[in-house]
Automatic annotation (TrEMBL):
Any one GO cellular component localisation term in the record: plasma membrane
Name listed for the protein in its UniProt record: ABC transporter ATP-binding protein
Regions crossing the membrane: 20-43, 55-76, 137-154, 160-180, 236-264
Domain ABC transporter: 335-569
Coiled-coil boundaries: none
Entry's family note: Belongs to the ABC transporter superfamily.
Keywords annotated in UniProt: ATP-binding, Membrane, Nucleotide-binding, Transmembrane, Transmembrane helix
Lineage: Bacteria, Bacillati, Bacillota, Bacilli, Bacillales
Its membrane topology: Multi-pass membrane protein
Length: 575
């Protein structure tokens, strides 16, 4: 589908608004075209008659027409912009919805700041273009043709002289526009860069400060900001040049018309009324060209934004639901890895030919060196990434035969770095079950051993936890994440180093909460400290070469293999 045609599909839901706006704009244009004729008639017919009564009558008639025109212009301004903002809102909504569906791989490779640019700045100009584009273009063309026809009828010679300006103007506008196209693209790229930089620096502000690298960050920011300034200045230069050029050409030609008109009028070929009328039409004739120029300025910006919008909208999710994927209910949680091989884009395979069975209700611990692929292995179960070869089955069904939503409803993940949302404790717990009752939320908080902490807060459950939960300690955040999981109540639980960042005392409390949480669920524990997994039903040792060995804790220590090595290392240094 052509990009323009695609653009027009966004008008569909707002057809009536468009008709209202377009119709009003057309009437305004026709009235504009009629006014010079009226003036001409006024000067040539009414003035010589010298009848004061008819003159007042004509004035009153014109007044009425101006009133109508003013009202319609209001309609065009307000409802026209309403049309634009409606389309912009639709697009923004559609984009947000689409981006939410994209997969982990996309977000691994995309800066948040870029997405923010796409959803804000880029769409402003699209909204403007949506309103002005088709309407102004149509009216400009209509006015241009009609004004020229009337000018021809008044005086063909003068009309032809005026017309000489057109190719000059078209050439000037064409050249400037081409330059502007490139400048607009560059400008958008630069502002996206600035946004991405702000995003990055601000979300990492605590790291920046602790390294006292403010100056370093500022220099990077200033570079991007200066690049944006340069790009924007360049587009202003082009715009200024073209509008000055247009101004010069149109005024010069108006002057020529005045001089030739005076000459024709001396020779009795032109009445005063015709000369005045003609001069007014010259303005009307050039106005559309200026209008089109303004449009051509807006068009590349809007289109650049629209292309970026469609680019993102056309990005398919790496992991998509199969057409006949089933919406499944609660699973038992019997997980099987069948010869699974997986690697991230452009990296060597992280997992190769993994075979593993985790019966429902079992607690399996994964240990092994950092970077071996434990987190990766677990993130394949909720289908955050797609396996390259092999298959993962839950309760005997390939996870690709389930919808992602229904699959993920069955899986809960607690990670080392918990992500909390700005808001209250209550809101963050309820994130696990959006329609949870007050009693359920309290029960979840109690089971996560969060009660005494919440009671100590002056605002209780309504305590604001700051951006990403910055006002909470690591242990408190972790318990909030656990409370959230009690509410979600999934049959499969993944604990990815959930206690690794905590001190031993806090760890003990949280360990207890986690044990309660994992009761009656299939639980995959990735653990750094071996003491925390002593009671696991099974331990799987993952190394760069895959699964090295598995068994119960004591068995593995006795066997004297990889696990025994890890065990020795940890208990010798930790004591
Ligand atoms: P572990 O959890 O055992 O420490 P991971 O599963 O996190 O290991 O990582 C396994 C390997 O995959 C590492 O080499 C890591 O660099 C790489 N990796 C992890 N996540 C990504 C990602 N999102 N994109 C590309 N490579 C990744
Ligand atoms: Mg990991």
């Amino acid at each position: 589908m052509g990009v323009i045609r695609r653009f027009f599909t966004y008008y569909k839901p707002h057809k009536r608004l468009f008709m209202l706006d377009f119709g009003s704009a057309c009437v305004v244009a026709v009235l504009e075209l009629a006014f010079p004729l009226a003036v001409q008639w006024f000067v040539d017919t009414l003035l010589p008659e010298g009848e004061w009564r008819t003159i007042v009558l004509a004035g009153t008639g014109l007044f009425a027409l101006y009133l109508v025109s003013t009202g319609l212009q209001f309609v065009v301004n307000y409802w026209g912009h309403k049309l634009g903002i409606n389309i912009e809102t639709d697009m923004r909504q559609q984009l947000f919805q689409h981006v939410q569906k994209l997969s982990f791989r996309f977000f691994d490779n995309t800066k948040t700041g870029y997405l923010m640019s796409r959803m804000t700045n880029d769409l402003f100009d699209i909204g403007e273009m949506a309103h002005h584009g088709p309407e102004d273009l149509f009216i400009a063309c209509m006015t241009f043709v009609a004004a020229f026809a009337i000018m021809l009828s008044i005086n063909p010679q003068l009309a032809l002289i005026t017309f000489v300006a057109v190719p000059l103007l078209v050439w000037l506008i064409g050249v400037c526009n081409k330059l502007l196209h490139g400048a607009a693209r560059k400008m958008y790229a630069e502002i996206a860069e600035v946004n991405a930089r702000v995003e990055d620096s601000m979300s990492g502000i605590r790291v920046v400060k602790s390294f006292t690298n403010e100056t370093f960050e500022m220099e990077k920011f200033n570079r991007d900001n200066a690049n944006f300034r340069k790009a924007k200045l360049r587009s202003y230069w082009i715009i200024s040049f073209s509008s000055s050029g247009i101004y010069f050409l149109t005024r010069i030609f108006a002057l020529l018309v005045l001089m030739f008109g005076a000459y024709f009028s001396f020779n009795g070929k032109l009445t005063y009324g015709e000369l005045i009328g003609f001069l007014l039409y010259v303005n009307l004739f050039f106005k559309p060209i200026e209008k089109i120029n303004a449009l051509l300025e807006m068009y590349p910006k809007g289109m650049a934004g629209f292309k970026r919008f469609t680019e993102l909208l056309d990005t398919a999710a790496d992991v998509a639901d199969e057409p006949n994927a089933a919406e499944i209910g609660p699973l038992r949680g019997d997980i099987v890895f069948r010869d699974v091989t997986f690697g991230y884009e452009g990296h060597a395979k992280v997992l190769q030919h993994i075979n593993l069975r985790i019966p429902a209700g079992e607690t399996v611990a994964f240990v092994g060196p950092s970077g071996a692929g434990k987190t990766t292995l677990c993130s394949l179960i909720p289908r955050f990434y797609e396996v390259d070869e092999g298959a993962i089955e839950i309760d005997g069904v390939d996870i690709r035969a389930m919808t992602q939503r229904s699959l993920r409803r069955n899986i809960g993940i607690v990670q080392q770095d918990v992500f909390l949302f700005t808001g209250t404790i209550r809101e963050n717990i309820a994130y696990g079950k959006l329609n949870a009752t007050e009693a359920e939320i309290r029960e979840a908080a109690r089971r996560a051993h969060l009660e005494s902490f919440i009671e100590a807060q002056p605002a209780g459950f309504d305590t604001q936890i700051g951006e990403r939960g910055i006002k909470l300690s690591g242990g408190q955040k972790q318990r909030l994440a656990i409370a959230r999981m009690f509410l979600k109540n999934p049959p499969i639980l993944i604990l990815d180093e959930a206690t690794s960042a905590l001190d031993t005392e806090t760890e003990a409390v949280i360990q207890q909460a986690l044990e309660e949480l994992s009761a009656n669920r299939t639980t995959l524990v990735i653990a750094h400290r071996l003491a925390t997994i002593r009671h696991a039903d099974r331990i799987v040792v993952v190394t760069e070469d895959g699964i090295a060995e598995q068994g119960r804790y004591d068995e593995l220590v006795e066997r004297g293999g990889a696990f025994a090595g890890l065990h020795r290392a940890q208990f010798e240094t930790v004591g």
